[in-house]
Inverse folding.
């Protein structure tokens, strides 16, 4: 049984560790949270982020490096703008360069 409150808290603690200039994938966060099958739960947690100033959910992208097309970050291009401001490199308008910017979990 998954206890959402504890799972969300775990996800938030992991996301807080992603440094500026780096990104992680939903699957990577799920793996670090203890269950690689929780990628969708990671998405739900980030969408309901209670503390955007301290939980940098904009640093989480999909497994291909694509940013979110939703408005969860304050607008259609807000995630891209936040990542660019932190020095994250993109290969096109919507895809992060994972070779250079993927967080190694350290």
């Amino acid at each position: 049984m998954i206890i959402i409150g504890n799972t969300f808290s775990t996800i938030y603690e992991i996301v807080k560790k992603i440094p500026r200039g780096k990104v992680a994938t939903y699957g990577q966060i799920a793996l670090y949270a203890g269950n690689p099958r929780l990628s969708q739960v990671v998405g739900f947690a980030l969408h309901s982020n209670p503390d955007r100033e301290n939980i940098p959910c904009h640093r989480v992208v999909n497994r291909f490096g694509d940013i979110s097309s939703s408005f969860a970050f304050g607008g259609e291009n807000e995630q891209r703008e936040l990542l660019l401001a932190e020095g994250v490199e993109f290969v096109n308008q919507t895809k992060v360069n994972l070779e250079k910017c993927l967080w190694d979990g350290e």
Summary: The mean pLDDT is 90. Residues 4-16 form the longest helix (13 residues). Residues 4-101 form a domain with the Arc Repressor Mutant, subunit A fold (CATH 1.10.10.10). The beta strands are 24-25, 60-61.
